[in-house]
């Protein structure tokens, strides 16, 4: 949907063609209805991005944007790291038509150029130089990658912006309503189970070079914000980064955490807890001794949009109340 001629110029050319064929001039209403399809959106940069109409051939450079497109019923033509996305994000499955455009941090401009995209969705995590190069191929809308001052509101804002650019506002409203309903239902279930106000620590962990690393989702993280909405309390006292609300610790660091439950997500083989089976520090932690360590299902994207957020709500409530 690349703009080479203005709508006015296109209408003028059509009028000349009709005159040459000896036909009457097209009704003025036709021109106005065509013009009405044009869309201008303001992205996270404060930049106005003009589109000829609702975008249908869309490329996504980051997984949360891709998930949002699928949520809105728009199957992207290009996605960064299709294999990784398919492993980590199950809330928005891709079909076989999608082309892999490289990594999230370094998309292949050559591949994107072959896709005839009428819109590219990027995030503020993508370097400005890369965004500038992509703008030579198609209009680019940039969404905020994350915002530790209000992750839920930011996720909903991103979905609404993409919906505006693709003409799918109704589906965005439905997705946000589904999340709100899941939170209300989940909060009630936790209260009924006597879990309201419980101190629940969420983190992800992995093993590299034989060493266990733990990444706490502290105040300002998306999943922590959701837990708060569910009536749970975060026990993490450390400070996270300004965008994602993520921190870093190790097994010894968990001894300072006053948590009644520990919840985590991994993918595939659980090397994280397997490596801690014989770890005396891990085994001494209160939530381990009481059996309150919960692994959620694979494929719940921890930095996703409302669809993944709803998926997370259902999973953590089910896990804590089982």
Automatic annotation (TrEMBL):
Pfam families with a match to the protein in the record: Peripla_BP_2
Localization: Cell envelope
Xref: Gene3D superfamilies: Nitrogenase molybdenum iron protein domain
Domain Fe/B12 periplasmic-binding: start-end pairs: 57-322
Predominant location: other
Record key words, sorted: Signal, Transport
Name this polypeptide is given: Siderophore ABC transporter substrate-binding protein CdtB
UniProt family annotation: Belongs to the bacterial solute-binding protein 8 family.
Segment forming the signal sequence: 1-28
Domain of life of the organism encoding this protein: Bacteria
Lineage of producing organism: Bacteria, Bacillati, Actinomycetota, Actinomycetes, Micrococcales
Family matches, as PROSITE patterns: FE_B12_PBP, PROKAR_LIPOPROTEIN
Claim: Transport is one of the keywords in the record: yes
